[in-house]
C-alpha cells in the first residue's frame, strides 16, 4: 500500500530541511544558515511515533518573476502540492509572520489540500510572540516545535493523524530502515537485483538535471542556464522500458551537484554539495559521467572519473549536447584517446554520444548500464578462477628479485560489487606493481569483467619462524 504524502512548504530559511531530516531520521537534505539552500523536491520515508508517510522537502517560496531561478523554484514547489494528502506550512516563530508568509497562506487557502501550520524555532520565550501571530492565519491551531532539537513532535503527530490515519495500516507501523544499511555478504550478493542505482555526475552545467527530466518525461528537477543549480543529491524512482524487448526495468536515478576543481570550491554550501555528490557516487551501482560536447574532455572530468573508479563503481561516459557538437567524429575519437591516456587503470570504458534535449542515445546508455551492473556483480567459481590463474603464471611467471622466487599459490574472489580478489603466496611484498597490473588486466580481459573496476589484494602466508 502506498504511503500518504506530506509536503513541507514555507519561505526560505524557516527550517523546512531541518524538519525533513528530523522526520526521516537522517541528514538527507543539505542544511545551512543561508536562505535558498534547497532547490529541488526531495522525497523521504518518514516515521513519526509509528505513523508512516512520505515527506517531501521543497524549495523556499519566493516572490520573484517566474523566469528567474527563484521563480522557477517556486513553480516546482507549486507542482509538488499535486497529489499531497496534507501540507505542513512552516513559519519562523522567532521572526513572526511576514508578508511572504501571508502570501503563501492565501495561495494555500485556494488549494484543495489540508494545511497544518507549523511554528518552527519555537523553543524558549523568543518564539512565543510568533506562535501567537500564527493564529491570525486562520488555518487552525498552529503546532509549536523545534525541528533542530526535536521538541513538539508529539503535537505534530496529533495534528497529522486525522489527515493520515485513513491511509495508515496499523499493522504495518514500524521504524523506517535505512535502505543503504547492511553488509555486502554473499547472501546479499545472491539476492535478486533491485532497482538499478544510477548516479549522474559531472561538472556544473553539463546537463545532468536536464537529462534526468528527459528520461522521466517531466520537469521533475530544476534546470536553467545558471551553473550550479542542483545542490542536494536527488534520487528519483522510475521505470524504463527497453524499446528492443519491451521489458520494464526499475531504476533509481540520482542527480548530483556539479563538481568543480577543488581550488574553486570556496563557499561552505558548495563544499557540502560536492560532499553530498561524493556520497551519491558511493551509494550508486553504475555512474554516468556526463561531459559537455561544447567543451570536450577536461582535466576535472578525468579527476571525477578517477574518483568513481576508486570507489569501485562501474563507469559510463556520456557526451551530452551532441546535437550541437562541432566536428563530432573528431570530438568522439579525441575523447576516447584522452580517456585511454588519462585512465590507465581501466581500458575500454563505454562511451555514448547523447542529447538530453532530444533524447538521442539515452536508451542505448541505459541498456549498457544494466549490462554493466550484471558484470559488476559477477562471481567467478573458484575452480575456474584458479585454472585461469595457473595459465597466467605459466604464460608469464613472476620475477625472482635477487634470485629469490616469489611464490603465488592460489587466488579467490572474496566479494562482488566491485569484483574483489585475493592472491595468497609468499614474498608478495617484492612483487612488482607491473606484474600485479598484468594479473588485473588478465582478469578483466579473460574472465569477462571488461571495464569494471577490479580490486586485487595480496596476502602472504604467515612465517612461523619470523620474529614476533
From TrEMBL:
Gene Ontology terms for molecular function: GTP binding
Cross-referenced Pfam families: KH_dom-like (PF14714), MMR_HSR1 (PF01926)
Gene3D superfamilies associated with the record: 3.30.300.20, P-loop containing nucleotide triphosphate hydrolases
Biological process, per Gene Ontology: ribosome biogenesis
Record key words, sorted: GTP-binding, Nucleotide-binding, Repeat, Ribosome biogenesis
Biased composition (Acidic residues): 168-191
Positions annotated to bind GTP 1: 10-17, 57-61, 120-123
Subunit and partners: Associates with the 50S ribosomal subunit.
Family: Belongs to the TRAFAC class TrmE-Era-EngA-EngB-Septin-like GTPase superfamily. EngA (Der) GTPase family.
Name of this chain's protein: GTPase Der
Species: Caenibius tardaugens NBRC 16725
Amino acid at each position: 500500500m502506498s504511503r500518504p504524502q506530506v509536503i513541507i512548504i514555507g519561505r526560505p530559511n524557516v527550517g523546512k530541511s531541518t524538519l525533513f531530516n528530523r522526520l526521516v531520521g537522517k541528514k538527507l537534505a543539505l542544511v545551512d544558515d543561508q536562505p535558498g539552500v534547497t532547490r529541488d523536491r526531495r522525497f523521504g520515508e518518514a516515521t513519526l511515533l509509528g505513523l508512516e508517510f512520505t515527506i517531501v522537502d521543497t524549495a523556499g517560496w519566493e516572490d520573484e518573476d517566474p523566469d528567474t531561478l527563484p521563480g522557477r523554484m517556486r513553480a516546482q514547489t507549486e507542482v509538488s502540492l499535486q497529489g499531497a494528502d496534507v501540507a505542513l506550512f512552516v513559519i519562523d516563530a522567532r521572526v513572526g509572520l511576514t508578508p511572504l508568509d501571508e502570501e503563501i497562506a492565501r495561495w494555500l487557502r485556494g488549494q484543495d489540500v489540508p494545511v497544518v501550520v507549523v511554528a518552527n524555532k519555537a523553543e524558549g520565550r523568543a518564539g512565543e510572540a510568533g506562535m501567537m501571530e500564527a493564529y491570525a492565519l486562520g488555518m487552525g491551531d498552529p503546532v509549536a516545535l523545534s525541528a533542530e532539537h526535536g521538541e513538539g513532535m508529539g503535537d505534530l503527530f496529533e495534528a497529522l493523524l486525522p489527515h493520515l490515519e485513513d491511509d495508515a495500516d496499523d499493522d504495518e507501523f514500524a521504524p523506517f530502515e535505512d535502505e543503504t544499511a547492511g553488509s555486502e555478504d554473499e547472501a546479499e550478493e545472491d539476492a535478486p537485483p533491485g532497482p538499478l542505482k544510477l548516479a549522474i555526475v559531472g561538472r556544473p552545467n553539463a546537463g545532468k538535471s536536464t537529462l534526468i527530466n528527459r528520461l522521466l518525461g517531466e520537469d521533475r528537477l530544476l534546470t536553467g542556464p545558471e551553473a550550479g543549480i542542483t545542490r542536494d543529491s536527488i534520487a528519483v524512482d522510475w521505470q524504463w522500458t527497453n524499446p528492443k524487448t519491451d521489458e520494464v526495468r526499475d531504476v533509481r536515478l540520482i542527480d548530483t551537484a556539479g563538481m568543480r576543481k577543488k581550488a574553486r570550491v570556496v563557499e561552505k554550501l558548495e563544499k557540502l554539495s560536492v560532499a553530498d555528490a561524493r556520497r551519491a557516487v558511493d551509494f550508486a551501482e553504475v555512474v554516468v559521467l556526463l561531459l559537455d560536447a561544447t567543451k570536450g574532455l577536461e582535466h576535472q572530468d578525468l579527476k571525477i572519473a578517477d574518483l568513481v573508479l576508486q570507489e569501485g563503481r562501474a563507469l559510463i561516459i556520456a557526451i551530452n549536447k551532441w546535437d550541437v557538437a562541432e566536428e563530432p567524429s573528431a570530438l568522439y575519437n579525441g575523447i576516447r584517446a584522452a580517456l585511454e591516456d588519462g585512465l590507465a587503470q581501466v581500458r575500454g570504458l563505454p562511451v555514448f554520444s547523447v542529447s538530453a534535449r532530444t533524447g538521442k542515445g539515452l536508451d542505448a546508455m541505459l541498456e549498457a548500464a544494466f549490462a554493466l551492473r550484471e558484470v559488476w556483480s559477477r562471481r567467478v567459481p573458484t575452480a575456474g578462477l584458479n585454472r585461469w590463474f595457473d595459465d597466467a603464471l605459466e604464460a608469464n611467471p613472476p620475477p625472482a628479485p635477487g634470485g629469490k622466487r616469489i611464490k603465488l599459490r592460489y587466488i579467490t574472489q572474496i566479494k562482488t560489487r566491485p569484483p574483489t580478489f585475493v592472491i595468497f603466496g609468499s614474498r608478495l611484498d617484492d612483487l612488482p606493481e607491473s606484474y600485479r597490473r598484468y594479473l588485473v588486466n588478465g582478469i578483466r580481459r579473460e574472465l569477462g569483467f571488461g571495464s569494471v573496476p577490479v580490486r586485487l589484494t595480496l596476502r602472504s602466508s604467515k612465517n612461523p619462524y619470523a620474529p614476533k
